[in-house]
Amino acid sequence: MATKTPKNPQKKHDGRRKNLIDNKNLKSPRTGIRKWVYRFFVAIIWFLILLVPVTIYYAHDLPDISEITQPKGGSTVMVMDRSGGLLASYGDVYGDWLEFDDIPAVLVQAVIATEDRRFFDHGGFDIRGFMRAMIKNITTGRMVEGGSTISQQLAKNLFLSADKTLKRKIQELLFSAWLEMNFSKEEILTYYFNRVYFGSGAYGIDAAARIFFGHNARELSLIEAAMLAGVLKGPALYSPLRDLERSYRRMGDVLDNMVEAGFIQKSVAEKTKAENVQIVDKQTGGDERYFSDWIVERAASLIGRVNEPVIIYTTLMPDIQDKANKALQRIMDQEALTHKASQAALVSLDMDGGVRAMVGGTDYTVSQYNRAAQAQRQPGSAFKLFIYLAAFERGLSPDDVMRDSPVILKGWQPKNYSGEYLGQVTLREAFVRSLNTVAVKLAERINRKNVIEMARRLGLTTPIVAE
Question: What is the largest CA-CA distance in the chain?
Fold first, then answer.
């Protein structure tokens, strides 16, 4: 039995589709702007749905936020040497609690202009400030500006650790939102100024003013307020007790920020930059304080803030420390003028990496800036360790042979310290003699990126480029 095939089945389907669309009881498909508006609202709804469980997950183990209104007790830290002797002791310093009306206006303006210019306009998280900081950091290729608001900084300093994790960041946002909902802007600033850390054991602006300038915070001048605001970016770097010249430069940046924010005139800023700040002359101890300061700061990043006494046992050896101090002073007396050097630093390590002695400068009472731990210098031949280790990890052995001869890479021609070339040498001999040409050729052979990866694995954090 033969069957009939429609002459044009596609035309039949098109006609049916037209009838369906023309039916008044059916809606036509969303097109154009209607489609995008629909998708936007669907995305918002799903975002809100997902936000609830995420918030619950990260909020279930938040610390007790009622502590913000409670006075904080200090803690004592004792740093011991290898034999158990006391190297140095530290105690938190808290000054008078200042109400908002007692805080100098110039300090409030300096901090807002530098740390959070839209503080009075946002609700705890400043998306504009965050995007501005992110763009600036990307365009400059380095971290030059943070995106955290004052509320976020207060939440982090009071309740959270310094860990750079997603959990800590989300909890920081939750805390800052809680602060904004429960306190006025003036109250948040009051807690911030009375709790923020300024270095040298000083918590709060009154303690910082007394330690740095020798008077209470109510009497802060414009230049002192700008200097305190500048310290907040990094107390270890910008404290006037650590490095006065660096602190002055940072203070100039703060004054420029105040001009941009409209708080002061440019002429006032320039006049203030020319003034001198009277810094308290504190005899802070011997040169072992370079080491103990470094240890305390590293310990704080590991254990966070504590309210009970802490004893830190270290690997420092007092007799080696004394010899290191004398050796550094002897070298400075003999060679400082020849090399036009004004400072020097020294670190002595055990085979396991323990620090036996550390001298961060010629005189701790003059400058507390630790050139041994904080200054960045070219590693020189010490970096060859990572090259050889990466090479051995990729199958080469100390008995493999390479040629010590001239080499040119894109116009760069490294040479050996002796100016001579030895020809065929084993990697063992090249390492012992610290031959530069062999190290360069070896890095090229195994790929520089593998060398950088090895350096990162062993703890180097400073920027390293492959080119």
Answer: 117
Q: What percent of the chain has pLDDT over 70?
A: 70
The beta-strand segments (E) located in 159-313 are 202-203, 310-313
> How far does CA 190 lie from the centroid of its chain?
25
140 close to 197: Cβ distance less than 8 angstroms: no
Residue 100 has pLDDT above 80, yes or no: yes
Q: Any bridge partners for residue 80, and if so which? A: 86, 313
Start-end of CATH 1.10.3810.10 domains in the chain: 91-273
d(CA 232, CA 150): 11
- Over range 245-272, report the average pLDDT: 92
CATH architecture type of domain 380-457: 3-Layer(aba) Sandwich (3.40)
Give the residue among 196, 200, 208, 205 at the shortest CA–CA distance from 243. 200
Looking at domain 91-273, what is its CATH homologous superfamily?
A: Biosynthetic peptidoglycan transglycosylase-like (1.10.3810.10)
d(CA 329, CA 327): 5
> What is the tens place of the pLDDT at every residue in 297-332?
888 878 876 767 688 899 999 999 999 999 999 999
Q: How confident is the model at residue 3 (pLDDT cuts 50, 70, 90)?
A: very low
pLDDT-derived band at 349, boundaries 50, 70, 90: very high
DSSP state of 287: T
- Across the beta sheet with 310-313, the strand order is 86-91, 76-80, 310-313
Q: Where in the chain is the domain with CATH 3.40.710.10?
A: 380-457
Q: Where are the beta strands (DSSP E) in 141-223?
A: 202-203
Paired residues of 119 in beta bridges: none
CB 339 within 8 A of CB 346: no
Catalytic residues: 115, 381
Task: State the number of CA atoms in the 13 A half-sphere of 457 facing the CB.
Answer: 12
| Whole-angstrom distance, CA of residue 371 vs CA of residue 364 | 11
Query: 3 CB contacts (<8 Å, ≥6 apart)?
Result: none
Please provide the average confidence, as pLDDT, over all residues in the chain. 79
